[in-house]
Amino acid sequence: MSIKEKIAKFRETIKFWLKETGRILRLTRKPKRSEFDEVARITGLGTVLLGLVGFIIFFISQLIRMS
User: Fold this and answer.
1) Separation between Cα atoms, residue 12 and residue 16, nearest integer Å
2) Confidence band (pLDDT; 50, 70, 90) for 1?
3) pTM over the 0.85 mark
4) Distances (CA, A) of 28 to 12, 17, 21, 22, 38
5) I want to staple 35 with a disulfide (CB 3.0 to 4.6 A). Which of 3, 24, 31, 57 is the partner?
6) How far is the CA of 13 from the CAs of 1, 10, 17, 46, 61, in angstroms?
7) DSSP secondary structure string, 25-58?
């Protein structure tokens, strides 16, 4: 594959990506307040749960080191 062919393929890939990105952006909309609240609540809960799991693992590792 020559350099010109690689450049042409790269241009086609970029054109396809831009076309698909534009299509997706035309379909998007601003979320309703209730949708935003639900996503924020779920994200916050996930963050708290991951932090809790991390703390529990840290606490257990400290207990093991002390014994």
Assistant:
1) 6
2) confident
3) no
4) 25, 17, 11, 10, 18
5) 31
6) 16, 5, 6, 36, 49
7) HHH--PPPHHHHHHHHHHHHHHHHHHHHHHHHHH
For residue 12 the two structure tokens come to: 């086609």
Average pLDDT over residues 9-23: 96
| Residue 39 near residue 31, CB atoms below 8 Å | yes
The structure tokens 């020559």 sit at: 2
Q: Is the pLDDT of residue 16 over 80?
A: yes
